[in-house]
Amino acid sequence: MRDIAKEVYEKMKVGSSAWIKPVAAKGDTLPSFQAVHDQVRQMAEDGLIHVSTVKRQADGLIDAIRIQRLT
């Protein structure tokens, strides 16, 4: 499994924000994308990012997460 949150984080500049979404061309699926929420939560607890938005579909699956890089 790809570490999507880390990939997005490393491309960001301090203070910028970005959406993390599954990319079908890279093999991401909505069910596999749910693990990204745990990665993002850990990064937020470590003080690396701030989670501003978590978008969910009607069935409760997360389909996008907006983060801001703090460090």
Descriptive notes:
This protein has 71 residues and is of the alpha+beta class. It contains 2 helices and 3 strands, in the order H-E-H-E-E. The mean pLDDT is 95.
What is the strand tally? Answer: 3
Oligomer: single chain
Query: What is the average per-residue confidence, as pLDDT, rounded to a whole number?
Result: 95
Strand order of the largest sheet: 1-3-2
**Major β-sheet annotation:** 3 strands, antiparallel
Give the N-terminus to C-terminus distance in angstroms: 25 Å
Total helical segments: 2
Which outline best applies? globular
Which residues form runs of ≥5 with pLDDT under 50?
Answer: none
Beta-strand content bin: 25-35%
Radius of gyration (Å): 12 Å
**Helix-residue proportion:** 25-40%
